[in-house]
Amino acid sequence: MSLHFDAAVLERSVDVSLEVGNGETVALLGPNGAGKSTVLAVAAGLLRPDRGRVSLDGRPLTVRGHPERDVDVPPHDRHVSLLAQEPLLFPHLSVLDNVAFGPRSRGRSRAASREAASHWIAEVGIEELAARKPAQLSGGQAQRAAVARALASDPGLLLLDEPMAALDVAVTPALRQTLRRVLEDRTVLLVTHDPLDALVLADRVVVIHDGKVVEHGPSSEVLARPRSTFTAQLAGLNMLSGTWVDGGVDTPSGHRLEGRVAGAQPEDGRPVVAVFPPHAVSIFLERPGGSPRNALDVTITHLEPHSGQIRARTDEVTADVTPQSAAELDLVPGSRVYFTVKANEVLVYAI
Ligand SMILES: Nc1ncnc2c1ncn2[C@@H]1O[C@H](COP(=O)(O)OP(=O)(O)OP(=O)(O)O)[C@@H](O)[C@H]1O
């Protein structure tokens, strides 16, 4: 199903218009207070806009301030599921009953609801936990149960509000891969702060700032060539897209990177992205010999102070080095150098 969203909440200075195509995942990015949760609340029917029209596959869910009659479909009749940061499971029900609650409340029989619940519990990889109560689950397991519950009611639109924000960083890559699999072909609006979520999970991103859309486009394009300062800061990680060849990433500009595969093993010839932080990069004037590091032959385009370090940018990669080493290397825009990064600092994702 496709979402058409256009709404203004004056008290919050939010005025946003966006579309999510059938089967598409759109990431909604923006700094704190930008209006992301407000957009989700209006789409879910939890907040009434001052003006707007929200429809799912042409069916009006919210209409306000238009010539036609106002519409306000209640949350449970929207065919929309909202997955919050915190799993919000019913504490007295087992995982199975929590997940079965969605389809049951949509009028499906008890048996059909349990069958749907078992299916989704298996899909998110927590089969062995079906009989447990939420208090007996880890944060990551509880969030998986919440994902299963959101999917079990087969929503036409799934709204995800920072689904990994409350989790330990150790469990996020595995949950991200699970989401990638179960969100495929669904219509999803995903609020996130994490550019990796946008890159791995979303087809397109919409960036909002001070309640307005400031940038939108395919995820890899917006993150690789951010136009707003916010997106540039958000996309502070190095992300090099390329092709998986013989256990490494070949980029179109001729670089080769080896790293650790996060999630599913990519197949040869498939598109991947190599991700690493600027502080993991060291700069050398000569190609370091006999070292296991990745070495990228680059030309520095910009140098700027950044949090007590010097940030050296090239067309594709950014490095943060100490002011002393920048001075010792005599770095200036135009310097031809080698950016090196250890393979275990590079994460590779199939995209
Ligand atoms: N319940 C509320 N009543 C009034 N104003 C609110 C309320 N909740 C949020 N706001 C204001 O509305 C604006 C948008 O907030 P919103 O929570 O939608 O932003 P956000 O992008 O989700 O931020 P965050 O990333 O911090 O969750 C902000 O100026 C905020 O202060």
TrEMBL record:
InterPro entries named in the record: AAA+_ATPase, ABC_SmlMolc_Importer, ABC_transporter-like_ATP-bd, ABC_transporter-like_CS, Mo/tungstate-bd_C_term_dom, Mop_domain, P-loop_NTPase, Transp-assoc_OB_typ1
Residue ranges annotated for the ABC transporter domain, each copy included: 3-235
SUPFAM superfamilies on file: MOP-like (SSF50331), P-loop containing nucleoside triphosphate hydrolases (SSF52540)
UniProt cross-references to Pfam families, sorted A to Z: ABC_tran, TOBE
Superkingdom: Bacteria
Mop domain span: 289-350
One biological process term in Gene Ontology: molybdate ion transport
Alphabetical keyword list: ATP-binding, Molybdenum, Nucleotide-binding, Transport
GO molecular function: ATP binding; ATP hydrolysis activity
Name this polypeptide is given: ABC transporter ATP-binding protein
